[in-house]
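Exercise 7. Predict the joint structure of the components listed below.
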Amino acid sequence: MQVRSILAVTLAVAFSTAAYAQEFNDPAEFKKQRELLSTKAEGPEGKPWEQHLGGAMVDTAKFKKDGPHTICFSNAGVFNPWRVVGLNNLKGEAALQKDRIKELVVLDAEGKDDKQISDIQSLLDGGKCDVLIVSPTTTAALTPAVEAACEKLPVIVFDRGVNTKCPVTYIHPVGGYGFGITSAEFIASKLPKGANVLAIRIVPGVDVLETRYSAAKSIFDEAGINVIGSEFTSSDRAKTKSVVEDYINRGVKIDAVWMDAGDTATAALEAFEDAGLPYPVISGEDQQDFLRKWQKENLVAIAPSYPTYQWRTPIIAALDILDGKPVPGPEWNLPQPAITQETLASYIDERMPALHYSLCGCQDLPGYPEQWGGK
Amino acid sequence: MTAIPDTARLARRISLRGLNFAFAIFVVLYAAIAILQPNYLEAGLFMNFLRRAAPLAILACGQLYVILSGGFDLSMGAVVTLVVLAASMLIGGDAAMTWPVIGALYAMGLAVGLANGVIVSFLKVPSIIATLGTMLLVNGLALAWSGGAPRGDLPDNFRNLGRLVLRDVPLVGTLPVAVIILAAVVLLTGWGLHRTAYGRRLLAVGDNPRAAELAGVPVKPTRISAFVISALAAVTAGILIGGFSGVSVNAGRGLELQAIAACVIGGAQLLGGRGSVVGALFGALSLFALFTLLNLLGLPQALRDSLQGVILIAAVGASVLRHRRST
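Solution:
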């Protein structure tokens, strides 16, 4: 009896993961993002955070208001280096525009849905805000709170979306599929059919990460490249290195390492160093430590990005909306560049910390580099 | 007269049985690894396995002292994270700073251990709550200090402590520095626990603090020292983890529970009174062999986590059952 129930539970768990892997593999969205990657950006040259890829403009004349303004921001949290850099970018943009901003109010939801819902409520009740920026913890849970806010003031959503069209605009880079497409197409172009790739991932079940993997997997399957493993490491360097060592010890040749996020890329590479093996083809991300290693060891590599410069855009959008200027919407697609061999050198900055995201677009902001932890 | 050697012999037999059990689990798991992957029987790969397991084994040796004194130390993982982040920020890539900073890291460990011990002994806060508090405190401090993203860099002479493998060593071929450090820690903690009057006092305190106090054992200093030893072990493990894989804000996450599990698999009795360093060592190696085995099996993550839970409960349950029968 007990054995049977244990079996039943295990099977249920196994199938439930298989089932929810499905919804992160949307061919239509995959196709859309693939097209966006090759769309030419409109907007000021060299300032990707002000550019947009296609899409319509929305009229904002009804929100026009005299400044200076109070901008309110409900942040999902600053629980990883990506968000740390991002929040610095947002504050940097606000500092740059300080003549037009009376106050920037930031509430940190610490990664909790319920805290963010009450944060938004208290911002509305405070009555100080002229505009509300939301970076939601999760999509479904935050939708009603955002809908309630839309009735009182203009709302801008960025990074993760919500299930409502009421915000003036939803700002985001191309997306997870785009990340997976860029990285996997590079790896596939460097390897023959039948080569082996190891996928290193952070955690299962997170939409923005699952879509990266599902896109990469489709491209590897198409190109006839074997995914010999897909492992979760919780961003833990020691675990990443151990997992890669285990794969090396299996005796199967690893031709490439694909990563859904780059913060442990150098740990994965060290496993090859310690085993005395040549480096694999690798896709990382735009963190400094990976870029430096790439340059130093002459790796065959690519750094796709989910650029942190998207944190600058909401402030720009907020001020435009309060000026009554049209903004890209209801979806504002930002370009999502990758760092390649050709552009590598220009993104390396020895002053910056190891996990600084190089596509921050923050070099011209006040307080750079100290504010971002640089020397 | 005859009663004393009898209990002594019985005690030795029990600790031997505890050792045998953890050792047996380890042999079974490692054999399973070797069946899947025969090259794990090579000396080089075994040494590499030990290198990776060394931090957990060192944590288990330290945790054992606290468990034997009748408590838990949940702050170990946080200390590991603090050590890795602090080392990177204080050394900042300057090789000349490595040794002074390592001294400073041990001083931090000493402070955390003393704080734990004093809170538990003098404020009478149960250790599980007290060390949970220091865990949150230390984690928060580490996070605030680093600003959420690690800064600085670890130079090669620091990294080598956890990363370097000595080649062409007689008998074993390759010998990682981490394994030498592990051997030293096991010898030192084993000697302290099983060969000194201090070790017997620690067991007495964990077994029955009131009786120990009446018998003249300095209960409070003994308890405090156990937390200090645990924290120093955590610093050592942190240095090895930082060396093995570099700076990470997640370096120590969850390690405290793994260390406790290792001790229990190794035959230590929760809330004190019984356990051995060799048992804790093999408990840790068993646990690490389990992680490696599940990696090699290539099961989906969700299934792997559940399986790990089932096996852990089974191992600990079996270990506890054995002791209940033998006493």
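Discussion. The radius of gyration of chain A is 22 Å.
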